Amino acid sequence: MLERILTNFGMPVFICVLLPVVVVWIIARTKQHETNRKAEIMLKAIEAGVEIDPALFGDNKKKEPRMKVKSDLLDKRSGACITSLMGVALLVIRYLGFDPAWAIYLSLAGAVLLAIGIGLFISYFVGKRFLAKEIEAEEKELIGK
Question: Would you tell me how many other CB atoms lie within 10 Å of the CB of residue 74?
C-alpha cells in the first residue's frame, strides 16, 4: 500500500516540484558564491590601496560576433531533432509492449512530441529559404570584421 502511494503520488511530486526547486536553489547559491568571492577580492584590493578594475564586476564572457538569424534557425533545428526523436522513442516503446495501463499516455505524448518536432522542422526549412539573404548578409558582415 505504501509503495503504491509513493509510486503514484510521491514520484510525480519529487520530479515536478522538488527537482526544479533544488536546481534553482543550486544555481542561486552558485551565483551568490561568485558574487561573494568578487566582493571579497574587491575589499582586499581596497584595503591594499590597489586600483580596482571596474570590469571585475562586469560580465566576464567575451562577446563574440554572432549570426543571430542563422543561430535561431539552428536552435529550431536542434529542437526539432530532439522533440521528434523523443516522440518516436515514446511511440516505439509503447508499441513494443510497455505497461498497458500507461499505453494511451505514451501514445499521446509520443504523438504530441512528434507533431511538435515536425512543425519545428517545417519552420526551420521555410525560415532557411525565406531568410537566405539575411543569413548571407550576416556572414559577409562577420567576415568583414
Answer: 13
